[in-house]
Amino acid sequence: MLDLSVGIGEPASDEQRPDLVLITTHENWQALETYQKHPDHQQVAELIGELRTERRVVDFELEGEA
Question: What average pLDDT does range 40-45 have in this prediction?
């Protein structure tokens, strides 16, 4: 993982807006896959899965970064 950012939404601003956003940056698609399979990540993902009510995921490549 090259970078990790966490954003917390404004309380009760709009139910369509997320409460929490996690953004991670990885060197390439293989690095992302390795991160997703790492036991520490799996443990945190399991905990978050028990606490969250909704989840959305977007994996994308920045232009010029390939």
Answer: 93
User: What's the pLDDT tens digit per position in 43-54?
Assistant: 999 998 998 888
pTM, entire model = 0.72
Decide: 41 and 31 in contact? Cβ < 8 Å.
no
* Distance in Å from the first CA to the final CA of the chain: 16
CA angle 45, 41, 30 (to 5 degrees): 120
| Angle, in degrees to the nearest 10, between helices 39-51 and 29-37 | 70
Taking phi over 0 as left and psi of -120 to 50 as alpha, with beta for the rest, 27 belongs to alpha
